[in-house]
Design goal:
With about 150 residues, this protein is mainly beta. The protein is built from two helices and eleven strands; from the N terminus they run βββαββαββββββ.
């Protein structure tokens, strides 16, 4: 299920990014603003991610998500609402979730309930609209992923 971008380089969070703070919209007795915080920046991805997007997508947007230790993104599906509106596209949209660092103990991601572990920087998984997935970080360092959302060539 994982594929790899062989040109992947080290990602360094130089703390100059204007991270946007999000929380999960899912509210329950278990999930709240206190344990679902994650940060996102748009259109500031590593060069190899941008090059990969240009090579593989006819229309695309990019972002990076930072998930600090102790945070969870509960199972959810993506509808690509923002991309559809900004690019006037309705169908054939996919998202590549690109791992920006080698897997660390406590970093977790699953698709359809299938855990993905031991990833290497540059590994990615393709998500179609409506595919359930989740991520968490019970490790000791932030977890970083990039997203390429778009229409493949």
């Amino acid at each position: 299920m994982l594929k790899n971008i062989p040109t992947a380089t080290e990602f360094v969070d130089d703390y100059t990014y204007d991270w946007i703070c999000h929380t999960s919209p899912d509210r329950s007795e278990w999930y709240s603003d206190g344990n679902t915080v994650h940060y996102q920046i748009f259109d500031r991805v590593p060069e190899y991610v941008l090059d990969t997007a240009k090579q593989n997508f006819s229309k695309f947007s990019t972002s990076v998500i930072k998930q600090n230790p102790g945070m969870v993104l509960p199972e959810h599906t993506d509808s690509y609402f923002k991309f559809k509106n900004e690019h006037n596209v309705k169908d054939s949209i996919v998202r590549w979730c690109v791992f920006l660092q080698d897997w660390q103990p406590g970093h977790y991601f699953d698709v359809w309930g299938l855990p993905m572990l031991q990833w290497k920087k540059g590994d990615y998984v393709e998500l179609e609209e409506g595919v359930p997935h989740r991520g968490s970080n019970s490790g000791k360092v932030p977890k970083y992923t990039a997203q390429i959302t778009g229409v493949k060539k």
